[in-house]
Amino acid sequence: MSEYDECTDALVDRTVLTELQAELGGDQAIIGAFVRNYIALLPWRVSRLHRALEKLDIEDAMDAVLSLKTSSHMVGAICMNRLAEELEISIRLLPGAEHLHELKPQVHEIDRFVFGTIDELETRIL
């Protein structure tokens, strides 16, 4: 059993977007556009992580994981956010860029939840 198995029960916290919508005066169109933008960019953000690890580019890896973490937090993608937080910590603990390849299993774990997160956002939120 993986330490990430609990992600299958709660990929998205719907209350995050409900609260954001309330803060924005109830405008569903803004929330819909925000979610669609996240969905469109999620596969690209994850592939950017893969590329950074392949190139052993620790700065790009950190930038990519922070982008994933922040955007996931804002949209309520709690599993993706948590996995990104854990990857961020792992990157910070690396002794150097030459060790980035050691983090590939964590990025593959993120891969496992990309389409589930997208599906949950599309079916429950949009």
Automatic annotation (TrEMBL):
UniProt-listed SUPFAM superfamilies: Histidine-containing phosphotransfer domain, HPT domain
Phylogenetic lineage: Bacteria, Bacillati, Actinomycetota, Actinomycetes, Micrococcales
Protein name: HPt domain-containing protein
Entry's Gene Ontology BP terms: phosphorelay signal transduction system
Gene3D superfamilies named among the record's database cross-references: HPT domain
